[in-house]
User: What shape does this take?
Amino acid sequence: MAPITDDTVQALRDTVHKLESRVQQLEARLAHGDNGPGKTSGILDPMRLILMGPPGAGISSPATGDMLRSQVAKKTALGREAKKIMDQGGLVSDEIMINMIKSELENNRDCKRGLSFILDGFPRTVAQAERLDDMLSERKQKLQHAIELQIDDGLLVSRITGRLIHPASGRSYHKIFNPPRETMKDDITGEPLIQRSDDNAETLKKRLATYHDQTTPVVAYYQKTGIWKPIDASQEPGQVWKSLLGVFGDERSSSTSGSLLSRIGLRG
Assistant: This one.
């Protein structure tokens, strides 16, 4: 089993979001009738998917978390309601989260034009998955893919417990997979590196246990709906990407009028 570094999983995640961004750009063009000669408005189908994965598998900043912080910062009605709950130490309800996603789909320019989105780290429970499906059904939409990044817990523990951080820049290193040139010093500034207090085996194992307890029923839910797709995130990076392309049907369409990536300009 070949280990993959934080840089590799981040590159995978960045490529997924590049894919999403390119889809949104072209859908915006289609919405304005800018299809180009010989092209039809059906060149692209909406892409609606969720990404699931344990801590350290490449999903480091859940989009729903960003959404929540944005709503709080903008002091929207939902944001004020969420902030009140968080200030009291409570958990934001499923209803608030679903309404935030709905608001984003209705008001985000790219989502509204192209009807496409990627959700990172949500839903985390079957109840959330059901509420998300209900909300999308009301909008006459449905998810196409539920992608789970799978990786052995032991490999995750070894990766994360060896992680080193440069606090000022956020640059990350690894004691084994990506060590700094000089022990415990940043390559650029020479300043000291730190290890986060929660990057220890005991804490991580608890987080992984919680993740598996929550995610196993969600995976079963999406298996029943037929949209669950597993990706072995411990493979060589090229194979991980090939597996991801397979989810989007790229391999099946490569011999026809052009693959998904060819059609959206990410591959020649």
